[in-house]
Amino acid sequence: MATAALQDLAAPHGVCYGCGAAHPGGLHIKSYWHDDGIHVIATHTPDANFNGWPGLVYGGLIAMLVDCHSNWTAMAYHYRAEGRTPDSKPRIDCVTGNLGVKYLKPTPLGVPLRLRARVEGDVSRKTRVVCEVYAGEVLTALGDSMFVRVDPAQLATAAHGGQEVRIMWFAIIATDVPDSLERRKSVRPAHIGRLQDLLAAGRLFVAGAFPAIEGPDPGPAGFTGSLILAEFPSQADAQRWADADPYVAAGVYADVQIKPFRKALPA
Q1: pLDDT tens track for 62-78
Q2: Domain span at 119
Q3: What CA–CA distance (Å, rounded) separates 131 from 134?
Q4: Which of 27, 139, 168, 245 would suit a FRET pair with 232, their CA atoms being 20 to 30 Å apart?
């Protein structure tokens, strides 16, 4: 089995409740290629909050597990069909076209659930995925679903009734806590990775840090803050993106402000 989850390779900053690696309170489903090269597998132990009948897993959670894991199975097959690794660009995205779940037996709480999925038929724009759900050695649910490869920008436009989604510039202005340099160094690769994702999507204008002293390399004096100019659909989206920054989690920033930005020059 691969050591890194597909979600962490292809979408480390994803915010889907089921499988988003960066969602603060989500399920964080992790999907991996099985050694057989056919199946994509995952394991999830449901929290007691997902109780249906007493002692049994809520059926909606099972559907969510099947949906997310099956979608990642479809995307994994797409990457492989193109001879690419999941961390390559451009990213491959699929959405659920049809979700089918058969509940074969009651699924008990307190037992790790194993998901085993594979593509049935051709890997194409619409790809069929079969997903088995096991509680221990017992097959309790079976998914048979269709996933559609999409362009995220076109998907957003379609979701808004065919209207082009309005994108604006926003300035993310952050002020560091005192003596932040070591904290910055500890999570800088993850911070830069998120900026590179914006750059690859054509949404980053500029990003950088404020040196504590004049000069390109402040040395041990470190930095006093950061500036990021990037495109987001709304200020709320910019705020969510900024809140998930590794520098925030590491305590680098004392304050973060989000301001709409109107570019005047150069034209």
Answers
A1: 999 999 999 999 999 99
A2: 6-155
A3: 10
A4: 27
